[in-house]
Amino acid sequence: MGSRVQGTRADLGSAPQRLKFRRRSADLVCMFEWNNRYSVQIGSIDAQHQTLFGLAEELHTAMSAGRGKTVLSPILDRLVQYTMVHFADEERLMRLHDYPGLAAHQAQHEALTQQVQQFQAEFNAGKTTITVQLMIFLKDWLTGHIAASDQKYAPMLKEKLVA
């Protein structure tokens, strides 16, 4: 007990004080905020990426507010469906313009699609819930994929005047 730091009333003031933590409301934290550093400089793709950010933020906000499955499930469904539409459009553009990295890019899309569809099935069956860890995974995947993989095809598609 000798190593324990003890203060006196004089050290702490006249009355003991409790630590005060500033509470941050989860709804004030925007986890999926679009930033121009994610831009691939192709208007149609950037617009789709912004929509994905918006849907993911809607899901995060609902989760943070403690909303139930009846609210979360339709948002998750929209996010999954829109992601698949986006992937198909991106791959169509890469195929149309003979992007040499198409197969590798498709493999990344397919891997995420399988993971998300498995999660969605488990969520709909009541076997899992939407957690902060899931939201962090989605954010890391989305921002990492745009920053690394999508930025690789952008110069070639811009050169072909894809808008």
In words, what does this structure look like?
By secondary structure, the protein is mainly α. It has a domain at 46-159: Four Helix Bundle (Hemerythrin (Met), subunit A), CATH 1.20.120.50. It is built from 5 helices and no strands. It has helices at residues 9-12, 43-64, 69-96, 102-124, 132-159. Helix 2 (43-64) packs antiparallel against helix 3, helix 2 runs antiparallel to helix 5 and helix 3 runs antiparallel to helix 4.
Topology record:
Layout: H1 9-12, H2 43-64, H3 69-96, H4 102-124, H5 132-159
Helix pairs in contact: 2-3, 2-5, 3-4
Which descriptors would you attach to this protein?
163 residues, mainly alpha, Four Helix Bundle (Hemerythrin (Met), subunit A), globular
Biggest sheet details: none
Mean pLDDT rating: 86
CATH architecture of the domain at 46-159: Up-down Bundle
Discrete helix count = 5
Brief sketch in words of this structure:
By secondary structure, the protein is mainly α.
